[in-house]
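Notes from hallway chat w/ T.B., transcribed later so I don't forget. T.B. wanted the structure written out for a chain they're using in a teaching module, and asked if we could keep both sequence and structure tokens in one place. Agreed to drop them here.
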Amino acid sequence: YHAQPSQGTEQEKMDYALNNKRRVIRLVLQWAALYGDLLQEDEAAMAFLEEFYVSVSDDTRMIAALKEQLPELEKIVKQISEEPKASQKKHKVLLQLFNTSDDRTQKRQPIRGGDEVLFKVYCIDQTYTTIRVPVSSSVKEVISAVADKLGSGEGLIIVKMSSGG
């Protein structure tokens, strides 16, 4: 974020620094937008975001061109740092399909509707449980299985995560 070229005029050095700072701010904004809920549970990530916001705020006093990105950064930091309200009583659940066998040694076979898959179900309190459901299960059936396992179906949210966000 604070990279400075060793050569060039003062104006070139300032332009270089400004472009680098803008790129880093954009990257942090995209990262926070994609992983906001997960970052909320990570103290190191939250500390980084708050420290980064303070650093960018300080830089806007010297580099006015950064002011245009400050409100968006502030909004993201505030949004992520807000604790979920107790009155919502929603369970944020993340399902992760996992395979316990080694793909290289497993004999390839077609998947049938009666085959079962194992899911890890992550809860907001950083605990998890596992459920086993048929491959052909509907979303309602998966949520019902999770509700049975957790003892409550009130306010369950099913979330799918992929590498593309």
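Follow-up for T.B.: The longest helix spans residues 10-40. Might be a good example for the class.
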